[in-house]
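If your schedule permits, I should be very grateful for your opinion on a structural question. What I wish to show you is a protein chain and, alongside it, a tokenised description of its three-dimensional fold. Would you kindly read the sequence against the tokens and tell me how you understand this chain to fold? Here, with my thanks, is the record as I have it:

===
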Amino acid sequence: MDKITTTIKREWLKKIANPSDRFLWASDFIQTVDEPSQYASEVWKAAQRDNLHPERTAAEHLDLTLWSKIEELQKPQQTAH
């Protein structure tokens, strides 16, 4: 695992994700949704791994954003593999 993946651990997600509100706080990991990024991808993978289904996300440098935007950014990366 790379450094980012090991940073986004299950314990971290439990602290920042509120399943009942369907909100995931991405801390400083997601900084833009203008284009795909490794950080957004790692947050998305961690949420998938832990079976989280947020509707919204936000971060220190990202206003409240629909989670579907993060999912949309993963599509080019998914088809490339």
Remarks:
- Residues 3-80 form one domain.
- The first strand starts at residue 17 and ends at 18.
